[in-house]
Write a structure and sequence with these properties.
With 258 residues, the protein is of the alpha+beta class. It folds into 2 domains: 105 residues, Phosphorylase Kinase, domain 1 (2-Layer Sandwich); 123 residues, ATP-grasp fold, B domain (D-amino Acid Aminotransferase, Chain A, domain 1). 27% of the residues lie in helices and 33% in strands. The protein contains 6 helices and 16 strands. Strand 4 and strand 5 form a beta hairpin. The chain is globular and about 50 Å long. The relative contact order is 0.16. The site of guanosine-5'-monophosphate has 15 residues, from strand 9, helix 2, strand 12 and strand 14.
């Protein structure tokens, strides 16, 4: 791995040059950060779980026609992805009030929103990813009108699909954050594709019966059992096999990891 060229290191992932032009290898770290990296920890196995969960979600979304950067999973911690130019926006979609929306608008966590709401933050760690309006995006040229329309339409389709997918395994999708990139096409145009990851690091997932948090809020709020919660999500999605004798899920499975 050390011989590969590192392109970028983020808080939870590293990007390496890929084997073919136009590809990258996305490596999922065990590192967890919150509150603009003021809180940090290493959570054994988180990277493996997020690699598997994000692979699962990206494949399902690809099947319903959402273009993504995902090509294939390479091993326990890495996936091959298409190289894109990341659009510097975090697109957040909310179904139930929680987190910064609850704080900002004084709405109690858990209150169902009148409809799904899409918000935008500027991807700027040094500014704490501030909430912005569509006006800012247009005025500063962070995305074109057409790109923004596509991102909003894709986000709402992703939300519909993921709400159903998680509902089928007894989980309420409270909110999530996604990122998009520009993929250069052979004709010299750009296609907007879903990039980054979709995992319990970037979604709020609450058990439908108990409202137990099965996501990164367990880390942010010191609730404990973070990887256990991620394992629960992966197990319910059918990514991990249960080990009947001990009744404990195991990370070793489902296909041919290198
Ligand atoms: P909030 O704005 O309430 O903190 O977050 C809304 C949703 O977006 C949550 O599901 C949260 O996990 C996700 N989110 C917001 N900012 C980030 C971020 O910088 N990184 C990740 N991984 N997720 C984020």
């Amino acid at each position: 791995m050390s011989r590969r060229k590192q392109i970028y290191e983020g808080k939870a992932k590293i990007l390496y040059e890929g084997p073919e032009p136009g590809t990258l290898v996305q490596y999922f770290k065990d590192d967890a950060t919150a509150f603009n990296a003021q809180k940090k920890a290493t959570l054994d196995g988180k990277g493996v779980l997020n690699n598997r969960i994000s692979e699962f979600v990206m494949i399902r979304l690809g099947e319903i026609g959402i273009p993504t950067h995902f090509i294939k999973r390479l091993n326990m911690r890495e996936q091959l992805i298409k190289k894109v130019e990341i659009i510097p926006l975090e697109v957040i979609c909310r179904n139930v009030a929680a987190g910064t929306m609850s704080k900002r608008l004084g709405i109690e966590e858990g209150e169902k929103l009148p409809r799904s709401i899409v918000e935008f933050c500027l991807k700027r760690d040094d500014l704490g990813d501030p909430l912005i309006a569509e006006e800012h995006i247009h005025a500063f040229g962070w995305a074109t009108h057409a790109e923004l329309d596509e991102m909003i339409a894709m986000t709402l389709r992703i939300n519909d699909y993921l709400q159903g997918m998680f509902s089928g395994i007894g989980i309420n999708l409270i909110d999530f954050k996604i990122e998009f990139g520009r993929l250069s096409t052979e004709t010299g145009d750009h296609q907007v594709v879903l990039a980054d990851e979709i995992s319990p690091d970037s979604c709020r997932l609450w058990d439908r019966e108990t409202n137990k948090k099965l996501d990164k809020d367990r880390f942010r709020r010191d609730l404990g059992d973070v990887t256990e919660a991620y394992t629960e999500v992966a197990t319910r999605l059918g990514i991990l096999q249960s080990n009947p004798p001990q009744g404990k899920p195991t990370l070793s499975v489902v296909s041919n990891d290198e």
